[in-house]
Amino acid sequence: MALMWNRTVDWDAGDWRRVAACRNTEPDLFFPVGTTGPAIEQIEAAKQVCRSCEAQEPCLDFALATNQESGVWGGTSEEERRKLRRAWLATRRSAASSGGPVGSVSPVTLRR
Ligand code: SF4
User: Which of 8, 46, 99, 108 has CA 20 to 30 A from 72's CA?
Assistant: First the structure.
């Protein structure tokens, strides 16, 4: 049996990494150890970089669609992404059960 991947989300469209504001920052900033103590300031510093990033939306789309569990992506912490991803998956299940287009449900639209 061949494995097939049904790509229903265009999660890596465009060339967003080329304009990523974090390209020239220390990568460790975006991957704090833990979520308490000094990590809180580190997460906030990473989010500050994200706020000025042109690629924030596609970056978050990518992180949610590919289930990036660690680090700061698209201006969100790990816990924030877990909540967004749960909501996105629920919306996709709902769209699928009603016969709607699942692929058109962007994870980022749930953030607004
Ligand atoms: S949104 Fe943040 S993590 Fe994503 S590319 Fe931009 S700076 Fe990097």
Answer: 8
Query: Bridge partners of 100?
Result: none
Q: Are 43 and 26 spatial neighbours (Cβ–Cβ below 8 Å)?
A: no
Residue-level pLDDT at 53: 97
How far does the centroid of ligand 1 lie from the alpha carbon of residue 109, in Å?
17
Q: Where exactly are the structural domains of the chain?
A: 16-111
Tokens of 111: 């953030």
Band the pLDDT of 59: cuts 50, 70, 90. Answer: very high
Q: Give the pLDDT score at 42.
A: 97
Report whether pLDDT(10) > 70: no
Binding pocket residue ranges, ligand 1, CB within 6 Å: 20-22, 30, 49-50, 53, 55-56, 59, 72-75
Q: What is the pTM of this model?
A: 0.80
Burial class (CB in 10 A: 0-12, 13-18, 19+), 58: buried
